[in-house]
Write a structure and sequence with these properties.
The protein has 4 helices and 8 strands, in the order βββααβββαβαβ. It is of the alpha+beta class. It has a single domain, classed as Gcn5-related N-acetyltransferase (GNAT) (Aminopeptidase), CATH 3.40.630. The protein has an 8-stranded mixed β-sheet, with helices on both faces. Strand 4 and strand 5 form a beta hairpin. It is globular and about 45 Å long.
């Protein structure tokens, strides 16, 4: 699956939605999950951890743009000023994560999601609440934003809106989706 410049045979029109919050008071917390999660910030650049979550979470949702990245590219991403990686753990097992990208008072929720085995436990709304709260932690934050698309989890857009994000606009991208997303590891499909 790749983005392409224009539509054609086998190419899907994909709606991408950008959402934002401009005030921390917009946050509507999710319910408490059915499990006891812990959220941990990676205090040093961890390219292996970022790539692990990117593939483990995004493999089902066409997150493929960065799979060809080299170790150096992953290191540059996690070492960039303003980058934060937070992971969610349940009973000693990674359950989900989010990555924030702070730039000039704005915070992009760059990546967010759960591993497949943790869906349906109330973790999604709770972890998104944690992500948004941490995005607003810096006193100079004026805007928190995220984008999602039709290829993401079917619950993603509703979760963002339920937490208080407001749609800012949509764009159309063209994606070659003739092959299914490969899943979190080779051969999982």
């Amino acid at each position: 699956m790749t983005r392409v410049a224009s539509p054609g045979p086998g190419i899907s029109n994909v709606v991408v939605t950008e959402l934002e919050m401009t005030d921390p008071a917009q946050l509507r917390p999710g319910r408490l999950p059915e499990v006891n999660p812990t959220v941990v910030r990676a205090l040093r650049p961890a390219p292996e951890l970022s790539r692990f979550f990117y593939r483990a979470v995004g493999g089902d949702w066409y997150w493929l743009d960065r799979l060809s990245w080299t170790y150096e590219q992953w290191t540059e991403w996690v070492s960039s000023p303003g980058h934060e990686l937070w992971s969610c753990w349940v009973e000693g097992v990674p359950a989900g994560y989010f990555e924030l990208d702070r730039q000039n008072g704005e915070v992009e929720l760059a990546y967010f999601g759960l591993l497949r085995g943790f869906a349906g436990l109330g973790l999604g709304g709770w972890l998104l609440t944690e992500a948004i709260a941490r995005a607003w932690d810096a006193p100079d934050t004026t805007r928190v934003w995220v984008h999602t698309c039709e290829l993401d989890s079917p619950t993603a857009l509703a979760n963002y809106e339920s937490r208080g994000f407001v749609p800012r606009g949509t764009t159309i991208e063209y994606w070659d989706t003739r092959a299914p997303s490969p899943g979190p590891w080779r051969g999982s499909r």
